[in-house]
């Protein structure tokens, strides 16, 4: 039996729990309103911007943007301006764009490098479909690395390669009210940080494949807005995060658990203020 659902209703039915979050940009107010209505009708929470500086402010904020829809042609270049900014300041978002263009500008392929699609405005159904696909990809955790979520619980990433200590700390932090995602390597920590933003990141300073300092360097290069959320753990009294991560706190393993909890609350308060 053929379905009588519209393409938009079908997209809504396929959406996972929770509304998708889209930043929709356009310098033409009428077109921006048109795009906003379409996306809101298809399970998106829309943040709109008419200028690049406003869009960049949203992208610098704490609210996660799952997909960006923006024009980039000879008439409306705001999308290209924002995308260049993203390459410099939020490279983790460089594959989350859908561009609107009847004919792309000459430098498009060189700058975008095949990461994103460009579609004409008349193909609004396809724009929504592609945007929905990007969100589904963004929401799919790296294979084999579970994400822990909890209503009202601040998301916390714990990276520690000692399985006994990892389990003990995860239990302590869960009892303290955090949704704790556990990993036992630097590689897995980077995969999760690339996938989502955490309110707090606790990393063992030394792990078998690097450690907190390598994770922190990656964060500075790719998601610098998370740098102020990192806390380090160490076994040695002589370890110093200063040369790599000046100002970031470091706690001795098995000691000062109460001071650690206080520090985590301060970080979460700053993130959510």
Q: What can you see in these coordinates?
A:
- The protein is α/β, with parallel strands linked by helices.
- It has 2 domains: about 5-140, Response regulator (Rossmann fold), CATH 3.40.50.2300; about 155-270, Rossmann fold, CATH 3.40.50.
- Helices cover about 40% and strands about 15% of the residues.
- The protein is built from 10 helices and 10 strands.
- The chain has helices at about 5-15, 30-40, 50-60, 80-90, 110, 125-140, 165-175, 185-195, 210-220, 255-270, and strands at about 20-25, 45-50, 65-70, 95-100, 115-120, 155-160, 180-185, 200-205, 230-235, 250.
- The chain has a 5-stranded parallel β-sheet, with helices on both faces.
- Helix 7 links the parallel strand 6 and strand 7 (about 180-185).
- Helix 3 packs parallel to helix 4 (about 80-90) and helix 8 (about 185-195) packs parallel to helix 9.
- The radius of gyration is 21 Å and the shape is elongated.
- The termini are far apart.
